[in-house]
Protein backbone atom coordinates (compact mmCIF):
# COMPACT_ATOMS: atom_id res chain seq x y z
CA UNK A 1 0.00 0.00 0.00
CA UNK A 2 1.31 3.43 -0.94
CA UNK A 3 0.08 7.00 -0.54
CA UNK A 4 -1.45 8.60 -3.61
CA UNK A 5 -0.62 12.17 -4.56
CA UNK A 6 -2.45 12.18 -7.90
CA UNK A 7 -5.27 14.68 -8.26
CA UNK A 8 -7.29 12.58 -10.71
CA UNK A 9 -9.14 10.66 -8.01
CA UNK A 10 -9.96 10.90 -4.32
CA UNK A 11 -8.02 7.90 -3.02
CA UNK A 12 -5.81 8.68 -0.04
CA UNK A 13 -4.01 5.35 -0.49
CA UNK A 14 -3.79 2.74 -3.20
CA UNK A 15 -2.12 -0.60 -3.74
CA UNK A 16 1.30 -0.49 -5.35
CA UNK A 17 1.32 -1.61 -9.02
CA UNK A 18 2.16 -5.31 -9.18
CA UNK A 19 2.29 -8.21 -11.63
CA UNK A 20 -0.33 -10.94 -11.34
CA UNK A 21 2.27 -13.73 -11.11
CA UNK A 22 6.06 -13.84 -10.75
CA UNK A 23 7.99 -13.50 -14.00
CA UNK A 24 10.36 -16.25 -15.20
CA UNK A 25 14.03 -15.59 -14.46
CA UNK A 26 17.04 -17.91 -14.96
CA UNK A 27 18.19 -19.36 -11.64
CA UNK A 28 21.88 -19.29 -12.59
CA UNK A 29 21.74 -15.57 -13.42
CA UNK A 30 19.84 -14.78 -10.21
CA UNK A 31 22.34 -16.66 -8.05
CA UNK A 32 25.28 -14.95 -9.77
CA UNK A 33 23.86 -11.52 -8.96
CA UNK A 34 23.25 -12.55 -5.35
CA UNK A 35 26.76 -13.98 -4.98
CA UNK A 36 28.60 -10.84 -6.17
CA UNK A 37 26.66 -8.38 -3.99
CA UNK A 38 28.97 -8.35 -0.97
CA UNK A 39 32.01 -7.75 -3.19
CA UNK A 40 30.10 -4.97 -4.94
CA UNK A 41 29.28 -3.34 -1.60
CA UNK A 42 32.92 -3.52 -0.56
CA UNK A 43 33.94 -1.88 -3.84
CA UNK A 44 31.61 1.08 -3.46
CA UNK A 45 32.48 1.50 0.22
CA UNK A 46 36.14 1.79 -0.76
CA UNK A 47 35.29 4.21 -3.57
CA UNK A 48 33.39 6.43 -1.12
CA UNK A 49 36.34 6.42 1.27
CA UNK A 50 38.72 7.68 -1.44
CA UNK A 51 37.98 11.41 -1.60
CA UNK A 52 40.89 12.11 -3.94
CA UNK A 53 39.53 9.58 -6.43
CA UNK A 54 36.10 11.24 -6.29
CA UNK A 55 37.60 14.71 -6.79
CA UNK A 56 39.54 13.52 -9.83
CA UNK A 57 36.52 11.64 -11.21
CA UNK A 58 34.32 14.73 -11.06
CA UNK A 59 36.88 17.34 -12.17
CA UNK A 60 35.16 17.82 -15.55
CA UNK A 61 31.61 17.10 -14.38
CA UNK A 62 31.64 19.97 -11.85
CA UNK A 63 32.10 22.44 -14.72
CA UNK A 64 28.55 21.83 -15.95
CA UNK A 65 26.73 20.23 -13.01
CA UNK A 66 26.15 22.78 -10.25
CA UNK A 67 24.74 20.22 -7.82
CA UNK A 68 27.66 17.82 -8.17
CA UNK A 69 29.99 20.78 -7.63
CA UNK A 70 28.18 21.74 -4.42
CA UNK A 71 28.45 18.19 -3.10
CA UNK A 72 32.12 17.93 -4.03
CA UNK A 73 32.68 21.23 -2.20
CA UNK A 74 31.01 19.73 0.88
CA UNK A 75 33.36 16.74 0.70
CA UNK A 76 36.34 19.08 0.43
CA UNK A 77 35.19 20.79 3.61
CA UNK A 78 34.76 17.40 5.33
CA UNK A 79 38.29 16.47 4.27
CA UNK A 80 39.61 19.82 5.52
CA UNK A 81 37.94 19.56 8.93
CA UNK A 82 38.44 15.82 9.27
CA UNK A 83 35.74 13.16 9.33
CA UNK A 84 33.80 13.68 12.57
CA UNK A 85 32.06 10.29 12.45
CA UNK A 86 34.18 7.41 11.13
CA UNK A 87 31.31 4.91 10.95
CA UNK A 88 28.96 4.86 7.97
CA UNK A 89 26.18 2.53 6.85
CA UNK A 90 26.12 1.72 3.14
CA UNK A 91 22.72 0.57 1.88
CA UNK A 92 23.01 -0.66 -1.69
CA UNK A 93 20.84 -1.92 -4.50
CA UNK A 94 22.58 -3.26 -7.58
CA UNK A 95 20.35 -3.46 -10.67
CA UNK A 96 20.72 -6.00 -13.47
CA UNK A 97 19.18 -7.05 -16.75
CA UNK A 98 19.52 -10.21 -18.74
CA UNK A 99 21.36 -9.96 -22.05
CA UNK A 100 20.90 -12.49 -24.84
CA UNK A 101 24.24 -13.99 -25.90
CA UNK A 102 23.17 -16.91 -28.09
CA UNK A 103 20.61 -19.57 -28.96
CA UNK A 104 20.46 -23.35 -29.05
CA UNK A 105 19.18 -24.21 -32.52
CA UNK A 106 18.45 -27.81 -31.50
CA UNK A 107 15.93 -27.07 -28.76
CA UNK A 108 15.09 -23.44 -29.60
CA UNK A 109 16.21 -22.02 -26.24
CA UNK A 110 18.06 -18.74 -25.80
CA UNK A 111 21.09 -18.18 -23.57
CA UNK A 112 21.39 -15.11 -21.34
CA UNK A 113 24.06 -13.47 -19.22
CA UNK A 114 23.40 -11.12 -16.30
CA UNK A 115 24.73 -7.56 -16.59
CA UNK A 116 24.70 -4.65 -14.16
CA UNK A 117 22.88 -1.55 -15.40
CA UNK A 118 22.83 0.51 -12.20
CA UNK A 119 24.65 0.75 -8.89
CA UNK A 120 22.62 2.61 -6.25
CA UNK A 121 24.23 3.70 -2.98
CA UNK A 122 22.06 6.72 -2.24
CA UNK A 123 18.36 6.68 -1.34
CA UNK A 124 17.28 3.05 -0.96
CA UNK A 125 13.70 2.36 0.13
CA UNK A 126 10.68 0.27 -0.81
CA UNK A 127 12.03 -3.02 0.56
CA UNK A 128 8.86 -3.77 2.50
CA UNK A 129 6.82 -3.62 -0.68
CA UNK A 130 9.27 -6.00 -2.36
CA UNK A 131 8.82 -8.56 0.43
CA UNK A 132 5.03 -8.32 0.28
CA UNK A 133 5.09 -8.80 -3.48
CA UNK A 134 7.15 -11.97 -3.06
CA UNK A 135 4.79 -13.28 -0.38
CA UNK A 136 1.73 -12.52 -2.52
CA UNK A 137 3.22 -14.41 -5.46
CA UNK A 138 4.16 -17.38 -3.29
CA UNK A 139 0.54 -17.66 -2.12
CA UNK A 140 -0.79 -17.39 -5.67
CA UNK A 141 1.62 -20.08 -6.88
CA UNK A 142 0.25 -22.46 -4.24
CA UNK A 143 -3.30 -21.77 -5.38
CA UNK A 144 -2.58 -22.67 -9.00
CA UNK A 145 -0.55 -25.77 -8.12
CA UNK A 146 2.95 -24.47 -8.89
CA UNK A 147 6.02 -24.82 -6.67
CA UNK A 148 6.27 -21.68 -4.46
CA UNK A 149 9.88 -22.49 -3.53
CA UNK A 150 10.91 -21.35 -7.02
CA UNK A 151 9.96 -17.83 -5.89
CA UNK A 152 12.79 -17.13 -3.39
CA UNK A 153 12.28 -15.76 0.11
CA UNK A 154 12.70 -12.00 0.31
CA UNK A 155 13.46 -10.43 3.70
CA UNK A 156 15.41 -7.34 2.70
CA UNK A 157 13.24 -5.03 4.80
CA UNK A 158 14.00 -6.92 8.03
CA UNK A 159 17.70 -6.84 7.16
CA UNK A 160 17.56 -3.08 6.56
CA UNK A 161 15.82 -2.48 9.89
CA UNK A 162 18.40 -4.59 11.73
CA UNK A 163 21.19 -2.64 10.01
CA UNK A 164 19.70 0.71 11.05
CA UNK A 165 19.38 -0.58 14.61
CA UNK A 166 23.02 -1.73 14.47
CA UNK A 167 24.07 1.78 13.42
CA UNK A 168 22.05 3.37 16.22
CA UNK A 169 23.64 1.00 18.76
CA UNK A 170 27.10 1.88 17.38
CA UNK A 171 26.45 5.57 18.14
CA UNK A 172 26.24 4.47 21.79
CA UNK A 173 23.74 7.01 23.09
CA UNK A 174 20.34 5.64 24.05
CA UNK A 175 18.83 9.13 23.94
CA UNK A 176 19.95 9.81 20.37
CA UNK A 177 17.39 10.17 17.58
CA UNK A 178 17.31 8.26 14.33
CA UNK A 179 16.32 10.75 11.63
CA UNK A 180 14.65 9.56 8.43
CA UNK A 181 15.41 12.12 5.76
CA UNK A 182 12.60 12.05 3.21
CA UNK A 183 10.48 14.19 0.92
CA UNK A 184 7.27 15.62 2.36
CA UNK A 185 5.37 13.70 -0.33
CA UNK A 186 6.86 10.22 -0.02
CA UNK A 187 4.75 7.38 -1.40
CA UNK A 188 5.99 4.68 0.97
CA UNK A 189 5.11 6.41 4.26
CA UNK A 190 3.31 3.29 5.49
CA UNK A 191 6.56 1.38 5.11
CA UNK A 192 8.38 4.02 7.17
CA UNK A 193 5.88 3.48 9.98
CA UNK A 194 6.69 -0.23 9.86
CA UNK A 195 10.40 0.60 10.14
CA UNK A 196 9.68 2.87 13.10
CA UNK A 197 7.59 0.21 14.86
CA UNK A 198 10.26 -2.47 14.39
CA UNK A 199 13.03 -0.18 15.64
CA UNK A 200 10.90 0.56 18.69
CA UNK A 201 10.51 -3.18 19.30
CA UNK A 202 14.22 -3.94 18.85
CA UNK A 203 15.24 -1.11 21.19
CA UNK A 204 12.57 -1.96 23.76
CA UNK A 205 11.09 1.50 23.42
CA UNK A 206 14.33 3.48 23.65
CA UNK A 207 14.85 4.50 20.03
CA UNK A 208 12.97 7.55 18.80
CA UNK A 209 12.48 8.23 15.09
CA UNK A 210 12.03 11.70 13.58
CA UNK A 211 11.06 12.55 9.99
CA UNK A 212 12.74 15.54 8.39
CA UNK A 213 12.93 16.96 4.87
CA UNK A 214 16.15 18.62 3.74
CA UNK A 215 14.49 22.02 3.62
CA UNK A 216 13.10 21.62 7.13
CA UNK A 217 16.53 20.44 8.23
CA UNK A 218 18.01 23.80 7.27
CA UNK A 219 15.87 25.39 9.99
CA UNK A 220 15.68 22.56 12.52
CA UNK A 221 19.24 21.12 12.44
CA UNK A 222 22.02 22.77 14.40
CA UNK A 223 25.70 21.87 14.73
CA UNK A 224 26.88 21.94 18.34
CA UNK A 225 30.38 23.03 19.35
CA UNK A 226 31.40 19.36 19.64
CA UNK A 227 30.04 18.68 16.11
CA UNK A 228 26.96 16.87 17.40
CA UNK A 229 23.98 17.20 15.07
CA UNK A 230 20.98 18.55 16.97
CA UNK A 231 17.36 18.38 15.85
CA UNK A 232 15.34 20.88 17.85
CA UNK A 233 17.90 20.50 20.63
CA UNK A 234 18.06 16.68 20.63
CA UNK A 235 21.18 14.75 19.58
CA UNK A 236 20.90 12.85 16.29
CA UNK A 237 22.66 9.48 16.24
CA UNK A 238 21.78 8.23 12.75
CA UNK A 239 20.55 9.92 9.56
CA UNK A 240 18.87 7.48 7.14
CA UNK A 241 18.51 9.33 3.85
CA UNK A 242 15.70 8.57 1.42
CA UNK A 243 16.50 11.66 -0.66
CA UNK A 244 18.75 10.88 -3.60
CA UNK A 245 21.95 12.92 -3.76
CA UNK A 246 22.17 12.39 -7.54
CA UNK A 247 18.52 12.48 -8.56
CA UNK A 248 17.10 15.26 -6.36
CA UNK A 249 17.73 18.88 -7.35
CA UNK A 250 18.37 20.50 -3.98
CA UNK A 251 18.08 24.24 -3.39
CA UNK A 252 20.60 26.22 -1.35
CA UNK A 253 18.81 25.55 1.94
CA UNK A 254 18.66 21.81 1.32
CA UNK A 255 22.34 21.75 0.38
CA UNK A 256 23.23 23.60 3.57
CA UNK A 257 21.31 20.96 5.54
CA UNK A 258 23.36 18.25 3.79
CA UNK A 259 26.52 20.09 4.78
CA UNK A 260 25.50 20.18 8.45
CA UNK A 261 24.82 16.45 8.39
CA UNK A 262 28.17 15.64 6.78
CA UNK A 263 30.15 17.81 9.22
CA UNK A 264 28.47 16.21 12.23
CA UNK A 265 29.09 13.18 14.44
CA UNK A 266 25.85 11.51 13.32
CA UNK A 267 26.24 8.16 11.56
CA UNK A 268 25.17 8.64 7.96
CA UNK A 269 23.21 5.98 6.12
CA UNK A 270 24.91 6.64 3.80
CA UNK A 271 27.57 9.37 3.90
CA UNK A 272 27.47 11.86 1.04
CA UNK A 273 30.76 10.50 -0.35
CA UNK A 274 29.24 7.04 -0.67
CA UNK A 275 25.97 8.44 -2.01
CA UNK A 276 27.73 10.07 -4.99
CA UNK A 277 30.10 7.13 -5.55
CA UNK A 278 27.59 5.29 -7.76
CA UNK A 279 27.01 7.87 -10.49
CA UNK A 280 27.33 6.86 -14.13
CA UNK A 281 30.73 8.57 -14.30
CA UNK A 282 32.06 6.48 -11.39
CA UNK A 283 30.60 3.29 -12.86
CA UNK A 284 32.29 4.07 -16.18
CA UNK A 285 35.65 4.71 -14.52
CA UNK A 286 35.42 1.46 -12.56
CA UNK A 287 34.67 -0.45 -15.77
CA UNK A 288 37.79 0.96 -17.45
CA UNK A 289 41.10 -0.96 -17.24
CA UNK A 290 42.50 -0.87 -13.71
CA UNK A 291 39.37 0.77 -12.29
CA UNK A 292 38.23 -2.04 -9.99
CA UNK A 293 41.80 -3.22 -9.38
CA UNK A 294 42.66 0.14 -7.78
CA UNK A 295 40.33 -0.75 -4.90
CA UNK A 296 41.35 -4.42 -4.64
CA UNK A 297 45.17 -4.29 -4.76
CA UNK A 298 45.59 -7.42 -2.61
CA UNK A 299 46.11 -10.52 -4.82
CA UNK A 300 44.03 -12.45 -2.27
CA UNK A 301 40.99 -10.48 -3.48
CA UNK A 302 41.49 -11.30 -7.17
CA UNK A 303 38.38 -13.49 -7.10
CA UNK A 304 36.29 -10.44 -6.13
CA UNK A 305 37.70 -8.45 -9.04
CA UNK A 306 36.89 -11.28 -11.45
CA UNK A 307 33.33 -11.66 -10.16
CA UNK A 308 32.67 -7.92 -10.39
CA UNK A 309 34.10 -7.54 -13.88
CA UNK A 310 32.04 -10.45 -15.20
CA UNK A 311 28.79 -8.58 -14.57
CA UNK A 312 29.89 -5.16 -15.87
CA UNK A 313 28.12 -3.71 -18.90
CA UNK A 314 30.06 -1.83 -21.58
CA UNK A 315 30.54 1.80 -20.46
CA UNK A 316 32.43 4.60 -22.21
CA UNK A 317 33.28 8.14 -21.13
CA UNK A 318 32.98 10.88 -23.74
CA UNK A 319 35.24 13.62 -22.40
CA UNK A 320 38.32 12.47 -24.30
CA UNK A 321 39.12 13.19 -27.96
CA UNK A 322 41.35 10.16 -28.40
CA UNK A 323 40.91 7.71 -31.24
CA UNK A 324 39.02 5.11 -29.17
CA UNK A 325 36.49 7.64 -27.81
CA UNK A 326 35.83 9.06 -31.27
CA UNK A 327 35.42 5.52 -32.62
CA UNK A 328 32.78 4.69 -29.99
CA UNK A 329 30.88 7.91 -30.68
CA UNK A 330 30.95 7.26 -34.43
CA UNK A 331 29.69 3.72 -33.90
CA UNK A 332 26.88 4.95 -31.63
CA UNK A 333 25.78 7.43 -34.30
CA UNK A 334 25.90 4.70 -36.94
CA UNK A 335 24.29 2.00 -34.75
CA UNK A 336 22.23 3.80 -32.08
CA UNK A 337 20.20 0.68 -31.26
CA UNK A 338 23.32 -0.76 -29.60
CA UNK A 339 23.74 2.08 -27.09
CA UNK A 340 22.07 4.24 -24.44
CA UNK A 341 23.31 7.78 -23.70
CA UNK A 342 23.04 8.62 -20.00
CA UNK A 343 23.71 11.78 -17.97
CA UNK A 344 26.08 11.35 -15.02
CA UNK A 345 23.50 12.33 -12.45
CA UNK A 346 20.78 10.12 -13.93
CA UNK A 347 18.58 8.52 -11.31
CA UNK A 348 16.01 6.87 -13.55
CA UNK A 349 14.87 8.51 -16.77
CA UNK A 350 16.48 11.31 -18.81
CA UNK A 351 18.28 8.83 -21.06
CA UNK A 352 18.67 9.12 -24.84
CA UNK A 353 17.78 6.31 -27.25
CA UNK A 354 17.81 5.78 -31.01
CA UNK A 355 17.29 9.01 -33.01
CA UNK A 356 17.43 11.17 -29.87
CA UNK A 357 20.80 9.63 -29.02
CA UNK A 358 22.15 10.43 -32.49
CA UNK A 359 20.93 14.02 -32.34
CA UNK A 360 22.35 14.57 -28.84
CA UNK A 361 25.77 13.15 -29.75
CA UNK A 362 25.97 15.37 -32.82
CA UNK A 363 24.92 18.55 -31.00
CA UNK A 364 27.47 18.10 -28.24
CA UNK A 365 30.35 16.84 -30.40
CA UNK A 366 32.37 20.03 -29.91
CA UNK A 367 31.15 20.82 -26.41
CA UNK A 368 33.77 19.36 -24.08
CA UNK A 369 31.89 20.12 -20.87
CA UNK A 370 28.63 18.58 -22.09
CA UNK A 371 30.46 15.50 -23.31
CA UNK A 372 32.01 15.12 -19.86
CA UNK A 373 28.51 15.17 -18.34
CA UNK A 374 27.40 12.01 -20.21
CA UNK A 375 28.44 8.41 -20.74
CA UNK A 376 27.54 5.79 -23.32
CA UNK A 377 26.30 2.41 -22.15
CA UNK A 378 25.91 -0.83 -24.05
CA UNK A 379 22.23 -1.50 -24.78
CA UNK A 380 21.22 -4.98 -23.65
CA UNK A 381 18.85 -7.44 -25.31
CA UNK A 382 16.78 -8.79 -22.40
CA UNK A 383 14.59 -11.84 -22.09
CA UNK A 384 11.00 -11.16 -23.18
CA UNK A 385 8.07 -12.77 -21.37
CA UNK A 386 4.37 -12.07 -20.77
CA UNK A 387 2.54 -11.06 -17.62
CA UNK A 388 -0.51 -9.19 -16.38
CA UNK A 389 -0.10 -5.74 -14.83
CA UNK A 390 -2.39 -4.91 -11.89
CA UNK A 391 -2.57 -1.15 -11.36
CA UNK A 392 -4.96 1.13 -9.44
CA UNK A 393 -7.90 2.42 -11.49
CA UNK A 394 -6.75 0.48 -14.61
CA UNK A 395 -8.16 -2.85 -15.79
CA UNK A 396 -5.59 -5.70 -15.86
CA UNK A 397 -4.21 -6.63 -19.25
CA UNK A 398 -1.69 -9.09 -20.60
CA UNK A 399 1.49 -7.46 -21.86
CA UNK A 400 4.82 -8.33 -23.43
CA UNK A 401 7.35 -7.45 -20.74
CA UNK A 402 11.00 -7.39 -19.67
CA UNK A 403 12.36 -7.41 -16.11
CA UNK A 404 15.13 -5.76 -14.11
CA UNK A 405 16.54 -7.54 -11.06
CA UNK A 406 17.64 -5.53 -8.04
CA UNK A 407 19.79 -7.03 -5.27
CA UNK A 408 20.00 -5.41 -1.81
CA UNK A 409 22.57 -5.45 0.95
CA UNK A 410 24.20 -3.37 3.68
CA UNK A 411 27.74 -2.70 4.87
CA UNK A 412 28.93 -1.02 8.08
CA UNK A 413 32.43 0.39 7.87
CA UNK A 414 35.00 2.85 9.19
CA UNK A 415 35.80 5.45 6.53
CA UNK A 416 39.22 6.71 7.73
CA UNK A 417 40.81 3.26 8.08
CA UNK A 418 38.48 1.51 5.58
CA UNK A 419 37.81 -1.45 7.87
CA UNK A 420 34.48 -3.26 7.63
CA UNK A 421 32.59 -4.57 10.64
CA UNK A 422 29.57 -5.93 8.75
CA UNK A 423 28.83 -6.80 5.12
CA UNK A 424 25.86 -8.90 4.00
CA UNK A 425 23.42 -9.36 1.13
CA UNK A 426 19.72 -9.68 1.83
CA UNK A 427 16.66 -9.01 -0.29
CA UNK A 428 15.84 -8.45 -3.93
CA UNK A 429 13.26 -6.92 -6.24
CA UNK A 430 12.04 -7.49 -9.74
CA UNK A 431 10.77 -4.45 -11.61
CA UNK A 432 8.94 -5.40 -14.79
CA UNK A 433 8.12 -2.99 -17.60
CA UNK A 434 6.42 -3.12 -20.97
CA UNK A 435 8.90 -4.37 -23.55
CA UNK A 436 8.31 -1.34 -25.77
CA UNK A 437 9.05 1.20 -23.03
CA UNK A 438 12.56 2.65 -22.91
CA UNK A 439 12.10 3.86 -19.34
CA UNK A 440 10.52 1.58 -16.76
CA UNK A 441 8.97 3.56 -13.93
CA UNK A 442 6.32 2.31 -11.52
CA UNK A 443 5.19 5.87 -10.82
CA UNK A 444 4.64 6.69 -14.51
CA UNK A 445 2.68 3.51 -15.22
CA UNK A 446 5.12 1.64 -17.46
CA UNK A 447 6.38 -0.79 -14.79
CA UNK A 448 5.14 -2.80 -11.81
CA UNK A 449 6.60 -4.53 -8.79
CA UNK A 450 7.29 -8.19 -9.50
CA UNK A 451 9.22 -11.18 -8.18
CA UNK A 452 11.31 -13.84 -9.95
CA UNK A 453 10.16 -17.37 -10.67
CA UNK A 454 13.45 -19.24 -10.99
CA UNK A 455 13.95 -21.91 -13.63
TrEMBL record:
Transmembrane segments: none annotated. Its cofactor is Mg(2+). Binds 1 Mg(2+) ion per subunit. Mg(2+) binds at residues 118, 120, 346. SUPFAM superfamilies: Glutathione synthetase ATP-binding domain-like, PreATP-grasp domain. It comes from the Eukaryota. It catalyses: gamma-L-glutamyl-L-cysteine + glycine + ATP = glutathione + ADP + phosphate + H(+). This is Glutathione synthetase. It comes from Heterodera schachtii (Sugarbeet cyst nematode worm).
